[in-house]
Design a protein that fits this description.
α3 links the parallel β4 (58-62) and β5. The protein has 659 residues and is an alpha/beta fold. It folds into three domains: 5-264, Aconitase, domain 3 (2-Layer Sandwich); 271-415, Aconitase, domain 3 (2-Layer Sandwich); 465-658, Aconitase, domain 4 (Alpha-Beta Barrel). The chain has 20 helices and 27 strands. Helices cover 27% and strands 19% of the residues. Bound molecules: alpha-methylisocitric acid and iron/sulfur cluster. The site of alpha-methylisocitric acid has 14 residues, from α2. Iron/sulfur cluster binds at residues 65, 99, 119, 121, 296-297, 357, 360-361, 377-378.
């Protein structure tokens, strides 16, 4: 019988539910990963569940995001993570070892296995045939406790790749082309499954650059088959025993098929400040560039850095440009040195950072005011670089290195001969820097510094909810907008009271002060609300300040799951036009909402009260004193019975505590 790869892997991991698009399914999780910025909270949540040892086959705690250790807080977090790993039986990848996604691909990826990671770019491992999902920390904590991962079964979108790259065009251009066609909303509710004759020429790191940025399409995940290229990659890692072939059976029926002819692609770039504002580099030639960053979980493999090194051989970086290289892992850096790639980078004038995320999440490397920065990163959301009104372009290592040499955006094909870069058959493998879990008897104690603040208790949902609209925002709001990262805020990830003081401050600097002591409130949003990072802090920090209701046109997947996990009611407009008539300051009432939810209601009445009439069809209510105008609208709650229970008790942790 014809079957997609997705169906095969899901069927092999199905705990409950039916593999029909739109239905909730529960999957067994084989591997988990966390990174430091989401991991601290995830392990506090895991500890609250009272489980003695982690259950998945492989569970890894990586430290890659917050590396500068500007004070004790950061170092406290790292020590907490190291001692938690030893106590509960996880692998620990210390700071300097590399970015979680790159290191997991190198040292642990296994075709046909499932991976759940508290980072939205976890689908990177789909490049090696893993079914890998980004999720909030609490979902990962539940998987660590042996529980399945719940998700709404997506449709499978086939992506057929044909042809072969022309010189100076590479994997980044494939995913930028898909972003150009489908936009940051186009992948929602979908898994991308790649196939076609071009796969023969695509190495695993190239495939991983594509699956990585499937996250930017809003896709649930992306996956490639496991074939000769996968075996070659695993052999180069000394892990051929982890290979198992994986391909679609027969001629499966995809919900739709996108075709990309690699031969027809030209160098592309995503313009400021959204990954889908894609244009050919040629059309933007001459734009002056002052910073070029090559790195991140999307493009920091040995291949990517060697391309940059070879292109820079005998050349110098333009004097206007700061070129910075962030290797993806210690292994990449080690092999770069052995392959003779480090010297040309340094000789050309590049700065080389230790492996890690760095400027990708605003931990240093902020660009100057009013300057274009070209980055091989996956995201260019406004202000994410650490500079207000930044102008960040996303591009391939080829396009980035051309910008570094010319000091402006230029089609990299102007650089002449394309360097031939082939990886060694056997890489120098530095996996021994990953600390394996000690035997259960030798676990040791978890060490908590003052920056590790215990998880708060969250109140259950009241029978009838009433609160004010505290904020109204537009379309495609990111979790970076809701709770920014960067060098000031990232050290507070394990301290909820402190980090909540930054919630929504990008959109309204007064927000935390404005809502303080005012009970509970609501946020109104547009389409694709909460795209981007998986950080559950973007749900939890507003909840801590009293946000209990989010009413939007549509949600992004991971943020939606995080809202439910922390007891925030995720509502959508039945009539999207109602969005236009609502403003900050309106009072909302959801009569009998708790019982209605538990009864399975798919639509709820919402009363909106205002001081003044704001649309022609509001009616005057004489008895309501202060808020005389009322309108009733319908809102939708598209949730499973499990999610309804979570919301009623005030969140997943309350449910886990109840047992
Ligand atoms: C990101 O790229 O946005 C991050 C920073 O890696 C986040 C995780 C976080 O906010 O800690 C992500 O992708 O989920
Ligand atoms: Fe790190 Fe950037 Fe990748 Fe996020 S997108 S994991 S910040 S490198």
């Amino acid at each position: 019988m014809a079957k997609t790869i997705v169906e095969q892997v899901m069927a092999a991991h199905l705990v409950s539910g039916e593999l029909a698009p739109g239905a909730e399914v529960a999957l067994k999780i084989d591997h988990t990963l966390t990174q430091d910025a989401t991991g601290t909270l995830a392990y506090l949540e895991f500890e609250a569940m009272g489980v003695a040892r982690v259950r998945p086959e492989v569970a890894v705690s990586y430290v890659d995001h917050n590396l500068p250790q500007t004070d004790f807080r950061n170092a406290d977090d790292h020590r907490f993570l190291r001692t938690v790993a030893a106590r509960y039986g996880l692998y620990f990848s210390p700071p300097g070892n590399g970015i979680s996604h790159q290191v997991h691909l190198e040292r642990f990826s296994a075709p046909g296995k499932t991976l759940l990671g508290s980072d939205s770019h976890t689908p990177t491992a789909g490049g090696a045939g893993m079914l890998a999902f980004g999720a909030g920390g609490l979902d990962v904590a539940l998987a660590l406790a042996g529980q399945p991962f719940y998700l709404v079964m997506p449709e499978v979108l086939g992506v057929r790749l044909t042809g072969r790259f022309r010189p100076w065009v590479s994997a980044k251009d494939v995913i930028l082309e898909l972003l150009r066609r489908l936009t940051v909303k186009g992948g929602r509710g979908k898994i991308l499954e790649f196939f076609g004759p071009a796969l023969r020429h695509l190495s695993v790191p190239e495939r991983a650059a594509i699956t990585n940025m499937g996250a930017e399409l809003g896709a649930t995940t992306s996956i490639f088959p496991a074939d000769a290229q996968t075996l070659r990659f695993l052999k180069s890692q000394g892990r051929e025993q982890d290979f198992r072939p994986l391909k679609a059976q027969g001629r499966p029926r995809y919900a739709a098929v996108e075709e990309v002819d690699l031969e027809a692609l030209t160098p592309l770039t995503a313009q400021p400040s959204s990954p889908d504002r894609v244009a050919p580099v040629k059309d933007l030639e001459g734009t002056p560039v002052e910073q070029v960053l090559i790195g991140s979980c999307a493009n920091s493999s040995l291949r990517d850095l060697m391309i940059a090194a070879r292109a820079l051989q005998g050349r110098r970086v333009h004097p206007r440009v700061s070129l910075e290289i962030n290797p993806g892992s210690r292994q990449v850096l080690e092999n770069l040195i052995r392959a003779g790639g480090l010297a040309p980078l340094l000789e050309a004038g590049a700065r080389v950072m230790p492996p890690g995320c760095w400027g990708c999440i605003g931990m240093g490397q902020a660009p100057p005011t009013n300057a274009a920065s070209v980055r091989t990163f996956p995201r260019n959301f406004p202000g994410r670089s650490g500079t207000k009104d930044d102008r960040v372009y996303l591009a391939s290592p080829e396009t980035a290195v051309a910008a570094a040499i010319f000091g402006e955006l230029r089609d990299p094909r102007e650089l002449g001969d394309y360097p031939r870069v082939t990886g060694p058959r056997r890489l120098v493998v530095s996996g021994e820097t990953i600390i394996p879990p000690p035997p259960p008897g030798e676990a040791g104690e978890v060490v908590r510094g003052p920056n590790i603040v215990p998880f708060p208790q969250l109140a259950p949902l009241p029978e009838t909810w009433r609160g004010e609209v505290w904020l109204k925002v537009g379309d495609n709001v990111t979790t970076d907008d809701i709770l920014p990262a960067g060098s000031q805020i990232l050290p507070l990830r394990s301290n909820l009271p402190a980090i909540s003081q930054y919630a929504f401050t990008r959109l309204d600097p007064e927000f935390p002060q404005r809502v303080k002591g005012r009970g509970e409130g609501a946020v109104i949003g547009g389409e694709n609300y909460g795209q981007g990072s998986s950080r559950e802090h973007a749900a939890l920090a507003p909840r801590y300040l009293g946000v209990r209701v989010k009413l939007v046109k549509s949600f992004a997947r991971i943020h939606l799951a995080n809202l439910i996990n922390f007891g925030i009611l995720p509502l959508t407009f039945e009539n999207p036009g109602d969005y236009d008539v609502m403003t900050q300051g309106h009072t909302l009432e959801l009569p009998g909402v708790r019982q209605r939810l538990l009864d399975g209601a798919e639509r709820l009445p919402l009363r909106v009260f205002a001081e003044r009439p704001w649309v022609p069809d509001v009616r005057l209510i004489r008895s309501k004193g202060k808020t005389p105008y009322e309108k009733e609208i319908w809102v939708r709650v598209d949730l499973s019975a499990r999610q309804r229970r979570l919301l009623a008790v005030g969140g997943a942790l309350n449910l886990a505590r109840e047992g």
